[in-house]
Amino acid sequence: MAAELVRGQNHPLSQVRLEIRVAAGRPVVAAAALGDEQGRIHGVEWVAHPGTPTLPGLEVSKQAAADHRLAVDLDAMPEAVHRVSVLLALPLGADGPARFGAVAAPFVAVTGLDGSEIASYTITGLDAESAVVALELYRRQGAWKVRAVGQGYAGGLAELLTDQGLPQAPHLAGRINEAVAQGLARSVAAPPPRTPDGDRTRQTATPALGPDASGPTTQGAAGAVAPQPTSPYGAQPQSGYPGSAAPADPAATQPTAPATAGPIDYSHPRRQSGAPPSPPPTAPPAPPGEPARPVAGDATGWSMEERLYNQVWGMFEDLARTMAAYRSAVDFADSRMEKELDQALSDPRSRIGGQGDAAREAAQAKHAQLVDQARAALDRDLAQLAAESEVVEPALPPAFAGWDNPVWHGYRVPMEIPMALRLGDLHLPESPELRIPMLVRLPLERGLWIDSGGGESLDGSFADSHELRRLALDTAVAHAARLLAVYPVGEFTVHVIDPAGSAAQALVPLVHTGVLAAPPAMGAAGVADVLARLTQRVDLVQMAVRGGAADSLPPGLDTAEQLLIVNDFPHGFDDRAVTQLRYLADEGPAVGVHLMMVADREDAAGYGPLLDPLWRSLMRLTPLPDDHLADPWVGHAWTYEPSLVPPGSQVLRQVLTEVATARTRYR
């Protein structure tokens, strides 16, 4: 059982290859310092940070992010190292808060490579501090332990590193902040060149990993495995995607091909090996000198649905890699120009007679040439992906399609549960017009949190709190309607808790079509009744499954998947109801009870860190475009945009009416 540590408490470590997970709610800088027996840091080379992310046996994230996963291999630590301190700091110059007291209490967990939690620590009591030593791994009598520290510093990283005994603390703190500010962590190795016709190869992976096995990891220079954060796509993360999960076997990592190895291998490591029963469709031959024409469903798979699902994954990975190559090239051009200017102007004599101006112009010309070349390659790849998107999007089945897709106008209730569900679109700032569907596997493995807090969009527009809550409710209704539409008749049930009745207008499509299990629950009594029934259902199914007696469930028990939509939290919730809600979020998904929260975290701030596990257990989605899906390994912050019904469209009501009609026939 995992240990929940308090400040100063320690716990033995039974494994040497570990993952340290950090969740802060807001972007923070994660670093780690190596210390000797007295805890002293001998030099800047003993600190892993975004500018120098790898040390022997240690790898940290390369940018500021709300969620981090640090990789540690204690067996690879040098003999002189007896302590590994995990450091967190708020980035300077960012638009976010300048002190930890203004954010949710950071949460740090030490886990094994299989994701099993060994110890966790919620850092409470912080106020004016902008940097903190979260915890430390230390060696005592040949064995390693973890200790919860929670020591904060109002002076930031410079004060923290000085207290750790580092003489060059101010200089190193400046380097760390500069690396974060300039985005140096985005620099990754460019992918190999594509074939002359611009086509991609997608091959079936050979490792014996089933469709629900774990995905790939990134191997650090010291041999430490760098596991990936949880993917917003759900159960099948891939390398290069925001949040790929770590496998149990690091040998399953797909190595990057050398620069002369030909086309990129876009294989999917978690696909089962073996050829599909029939070949995917192929494009007609392209005219000489032109790239191959894209075709919908050209990926591997046993059905057209699976081929399209894998093709969307391939497009996502293509965009991730080509954008990583572009950003890396731009970073290289910037650093090369700075280096050439420093060399040219380091000699005072070169500043006389126009030599300095000539050197500056030459360096800037080289910089512009490199950037133009990188942009031309990016534009070529983006054009190919845009062409593929144009043929893939119209071919998507309803579960994968946007609400503006004509496929919804011919909707019929399905006979089988689809592979995945579309929750919105993802895109990057360099190509906002190229949208990749965000698909999550079904059944849902995590609940959903529609964040109604904060009112500023990426485009600078601002929505007041009332408007933002309306948009959040519209997003929740669209997601709930899509879930109802993609499940067969009688296999999905939706409950709503609306204590104050404030969601009445937004819930009209669900209420008037009769697809809800019961009218929305109102008041404290309604909240208690719904939570009690769903909690009892979870208990009964758990006992039946664990006892191997699934046929002994009560006759009246609804065995369909359940979705509970909660609006206006924590209004109408007492302490018992809050505990039940946390229980449903933790235990419900495994037995078919899912949670969808429409809430502003600040409204529940009075509960303190008690509710931090609740927010962490849910997948955060936003009603406005927001770049909160960070990928610290490739260096992308993916912008999420919800899939909403077009204004004035009646498609959602038509679909829900069809669902209600099918239920009537089924009965």
Detailed description of the structure:
The protein has about 675 residues and is an alpha+beta fold. About 30% of the residues lie in helices and about 20% in strands. It contains ten helices and 23 strands. The strands form four sheets. Strands 1, 2, 3, 4, 5, 6, 7, 8, 9, 10, 11 and 12 form a twelve-stranded mixed sheet that branches. Strands 18-19-20-17-21 form a five-stranded parallel sheet, sandwiched between helices. Strands 16-15-23-22 form a four-stranded antiparallel sheet. β6 and β7 (about 65-75) form a beta hairpin. The longest helix has about 40 residues, at about 305-345.
Q: Unreliable stretches, pLDDT < 50, 5 or more residues? A: 184-277
Number of strands: 23
* Average pLDDT over all residues: 81
* Radius of gyration, CA atoms, in whole angstroms: 26 Å
Provide the helix percentage. Answer: 25-40%
**What distance lies between the first and last C-alpha atoms, to the nearest angstrom?**
46 Å
Strand content: 15-25%
Molecular shape: globular
Structural class estimated from helices and strands: alpha+beta
Counted by DSSP, the helix tally is 10
Give a quick account of the main beta sheet: strands, pairing sense, barrel closure. 12 strands, mixed
Give a quick precis of the structure.
With 667 residues, the chain is of the alpha+beta class. The protein is built from ten helices and 23 strands.
Give structural attributes.
about 675 residues, alpha+beta, 12-stranded mixed sheet, 10 helices
SSE layout and pairing:
Elements: E1 3-5, E2 10-12, E3 17-35, E4 47-48, E5 54-55, E6 58-59, E7 65-73, E8 83-89, E9 107-112, E10 117-122, E11 131-140, E12 143-153, H1 156-163, H2 169-182, E13 218-219, E14 225-226, H3 304-345, H4 355-392, E15 420-427, E16 436-441, E17 447-451, H5 465-486, E18 492-497, H6 508-512, H7 523-546, E19 561-567, H8 575-587, E20 593-599, H9 612-617, E21 618-621, E22 626-631, E23 636-642, H10 651-666
Parallel strand pairs: 1-10, 17-20, 17-21, 18-19, 19-20
Antiparallel strand pairs: 2-12, 3-4, 3-7, 3-8, 3-9, 5-6, 6-7, 8-11, 9-10, 11-12, 13-14, 15-16, 15-23, 22-23
Helix pairs in contact: 1-2, 3-4, 5-10, 7-8
